[in-house]
């Protein structure tokens, strides 16, 4: 009985509150009106659609990708759709110096930052992994390390605005998939790192939300080309996917699942992991944890 009062009842309450909140919080497009948002990987695909949705909602938008000419077209379209303002800064996320400086420049252009949407990835194809360490390193640097650099650079502005970090990930970062080992490794890293940071923010009362978006197959040109003749499954529309990502960030949800079967996502939610994460926090010396002091 003592165990139930100390552990099980609080856990049950937390889970009921979480699911009640997730089911009943209503998204309204005006939530994004006037908000200052960065979108990476925005020259095509999901990132481009995210930028267009934000523009229709009246947000300020700064987009980035490698192609300057394509970004200019995206900015022009954003302004046509009603963006409060729209800017582009071209560069590669293989360059960590660019990633850090990009956030500072975007913040100056908009006068702050409310939401950081990280969506970019490096080019990949579906193949058996043999010995291409360079490909593994490139995936980890672009798909993971640059996300860390960008979020660290953005954090001071996001703390001021009580803002949000939105991480676009994949089912390949939640379950094993063949033919995408380097990509999958980088996506698992996103979950491990940013889920841990979310726990730290919660304990230290940092009011910056972190939303991890777990996507199935989406009908972007890049994805369709990569899976052609290899993967036999239906793809979900990129326009709806982009809107689901924005909604999840605006509602400050911990995770967003989109683009696969209901059963897949129900199984991936993994309540056992959430229970263990909750219980593990009780083992820490919380005073030292909150004060960010190392244990002797």
Identify the notable features of this structure and list them briefly.
alpha/beta, 7-stranded parallel sheet, 54% helix, 296 residues
SSE class? alpha/beta
**SSE string, helices as H and strands as E:** HEHEHEHEHEHEHHEHHH
Largest sheet: 7 strands, parallel
How far apart, in Å, are the first and last alpha carbons? 35 Å
User: What is the residue-mean pLDDT, rounded to a whole number?
Assistant: 90
Percentage of β-strand residues: 5-15%
Count the beta strands: 7
- Spatial shape: globular
Strand order of the largest sheet: 3-2-1-4-5-6-7
Count the helices. How many? 11
C-alpha Rg (nearest Å) = 19 Å
Low-confidence stretches: 19-23
Helix fraction bin: 40-55%
Write the layout of secondary structure elements.
Layout: H1 2-24, E1 36-40, H2 45-56, E2 60-64, H3 68-81, E3 85-88, H4 96-110, E4 115-118, H5 133-161, E5 164-170, H6 181-204, E6 209-215, H7 221-227, H8 238-250, E7 255-258, H9 262-268, H10 271-281, H11 286-290
Parallel strand pairs: 1-2, 1-4, 2-3, 4-5, 5-6, 6-7
Helix pairs in contact: 2-3, 2-8, 4-5, 5-6
């Amino acid at each position: 009985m003592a165990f139930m009062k100390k552990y099980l009842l609080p856990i049950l309450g937390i889970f009921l509150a979480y699911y009640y909140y997730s089911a009943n919080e209503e998204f309204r497009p005006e939530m994004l009106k006037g908000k200052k948002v960065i979108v990476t990987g925005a020259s095509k695909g999901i990132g481009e659609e995210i930028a267009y949705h934000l523009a229709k909602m009246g947000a300020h938008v700064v987009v980035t990708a490698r192609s300057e000419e394509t970004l200019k077209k995206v900015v022009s379209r954003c302004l046509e759709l009603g963006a409060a303002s729209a800017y582009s800064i071209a560069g590669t996320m293989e360059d960590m110096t660019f990633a850090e400086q990009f956030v500072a420049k975007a913040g100056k252009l908009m006068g702050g930052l409310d939401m950081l949407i990280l969506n970019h990835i490096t080019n990949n194809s579906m193949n058996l992994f043999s010995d291409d360490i360079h490909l593994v390193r490139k995936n980890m640097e672009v798909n993971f390390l640059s996300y860390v650099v960008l979020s660290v650079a953005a954090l001071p502005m996001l703390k001021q605005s009580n803002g949000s970090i939105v991480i676009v990930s994949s089912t390949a970062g939640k379950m094993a998939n063949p033919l995408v080992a380097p990509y999958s490794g980088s996506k698992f890293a996103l979950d491990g790192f940013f889920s841990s940071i979310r726990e730290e923010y919660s304990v230290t009362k940092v009011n910056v939300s972190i939303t991890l978006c777990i996507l199935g197959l989406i009908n972007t040109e890049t994805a369709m080309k990569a899976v052609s003749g290899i993967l036999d499954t239906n793809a979900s529309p990129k326009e709806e996917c982009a809107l689901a990502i924005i909604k999840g960030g605006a509602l400050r949800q911990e995770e967003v699942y989109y683009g696969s079967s209901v059963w897949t996502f129900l199984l991936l939610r993994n309540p056992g992991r959430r229970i263990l994460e909750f219980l593990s926090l009780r083992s820490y010396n919380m005073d030292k944890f909150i004060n960010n002091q190392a244990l002797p």
